[in-house]
């Protein structure tokens, strides 16, 4: 009767849940199953992506030092690239890994006579050894390469005045000494030089192509430069000059009068 | 004096637990050193408690068995990462609770309950059942079954986190601090959840309370 009067709370009812326990035979099965799973866990290798959450967990735990390290690394990279290449790299001599235009220079600077004495195949092998990078457009063949003058840099070879000069020089050379030119000194593409001046598109600066004595130039420059005002187009440009001078005079005379408020100004 | 001790036990882990944690750590070191068989001792020691927590969270004995086994296997696979910063017991509980929470979230819509029977060989439960009913025989069994279902229904009406806190505190007897470690939240959050869950359970189980 005393027990019946006992106060029962939620905690007491929940304590009944502790008494919900499996029978003894359950544990035998549980043990055998867990042993099998344990063996499988030992034998079977875990896939690589099982470690990914662990990496994220480490990164989330140490986000502050990792962020600081990343910021430092970014700063270092930024400063390094902002300064440009190191002084050692800037003063270093040009090696075989340089740009093709620069790599051509040693090959072109080699004595032309010794190159001419070489057979065609050995000259090609040597050129390939000296210039491992792709050749520039000018070096279309070995014989042409050997004919490049010693003192002229490769970048000027691509210009059309230089090509014209070569063509003219070779034409003169063939005319003056045809017996030497008949020999196969310069290789098999002997006709190449003759067509250089006509075929090659000029790559030079556009202003270099301007003919100072052209009519169009004279006409265009006449209003600005009086030296160009003489000649055939001088009549037209003279009229323009007069027109412009009268306009200037009109504007100048208008500027002399100014009004501000109740006053009128005259300037002389 | 007794009240203050009980309160202290409620708030922080008991000294017995600390001794237990030291003993567990030496076993864990053996396993980490390559003695795989030593892990069986840890399984035998904690299997009932781990199964109990998982069972009371899921209310399904088959799922509980699978989840408890998986928790032990995960602990075995990751034991080389255990550094002893918390007790092995807390670490194992955290694995079990997280696995169960993940399982419950996945199967939110699929819930089958299969309950174990209340064993009346336990003196505490027998005394409580005697206090609740004066019936005997079949009538008593039916009453116990009905009470068990009502308890289960009330627990299932709680959210997963509230249910977990109630299970860890009221059924498994963990302190607030240990629950906070297991669930990865603050002690204040644990107390708040516990208070709210008890209010709900009280409302649901009002007919059985005196």
Notes on the structure:
The complex is a heterodimer of chains A (268) and B (210). Chain A is mainly alpha-helical and 268 residues long. The longest helix of chain A is centred in the last third of the chain and has 23 residues, at 234-256. Helices cover 60% and strands 3% of the residues of chain A. Among the domains of chain A are: 100-204, no CATH class; 215-266, no CATH class. Chain A has helices spanning 10-18, 24-43, 52-61, 63-83, 87-91, 100-109, 112-117, 120-130, 142-146, 154-157, 160-176, 178-182, 192-199, 215-221, 234-256; strands at residues 257-260, 263-266. Chain A is elongated and about 130 Å long. Chain B is mainly alpha-helical and 210 residues long. Chain B has one domain: Rna Polymerase Sigma Factor, Chain: A (Orthogonal Bundle). Chain B is globular, with a radius of gyration of 18 Å. Chain A binds chain B through residues 3-4, 6-22, 26-27, 30-31, 33-34, 37-38, 41-42, 46, 54, and chain B through 36, 39, 43, 47-48, 51-52, 55-56, 61, 65, 68-70, 72-73, 76-77, 81, 115-120, 122, 124-125, 127-132, 134, 147-148, 151, 155, 166-167, 170-171, 198, 201-202, 205, 208-210.
Keywords:
heterodimer, A: 268 residues, mainly alpha, 60% helix, B: 210 residues, 10 helices, globular
Coarse morphology of chain A: elongated
Protein chains sharing the most extensive interface: A-B, 31 and 50 residues
- Gyration radius of chain A (Cα, Å) is 45 Å
Q: Biggest sheet of chain A: strands, sense, closure?
A: 2 strands, antiparallel
Number of strands of chain A: 2
Q: Percent of residues of chain B in beta strands?
A: under 5%
Pattern of helices and strands of chain A: HHHHHHHHHHHHHHHEE
Query: What's the β-strand tally of chain B?
Result: 0
Unreliable stretches of chain B, pLDDT < 50, 5 or more residues? Answer: none
Low-confidence stretches of chain A: 94-121, 130-148
First-last Cα distance of chain A: 131 Å
* Cα-atom radius of gyration of chain B: 18 Å
User: Which percent range fits the helix content of chain B?
Assistant: over 70%
H-E string of chain B? HHHHHHHHHH
Q: Kindly report the average pLDDT value of chain B.
A: 84
Count helical runs of chain B.
Answer: 10
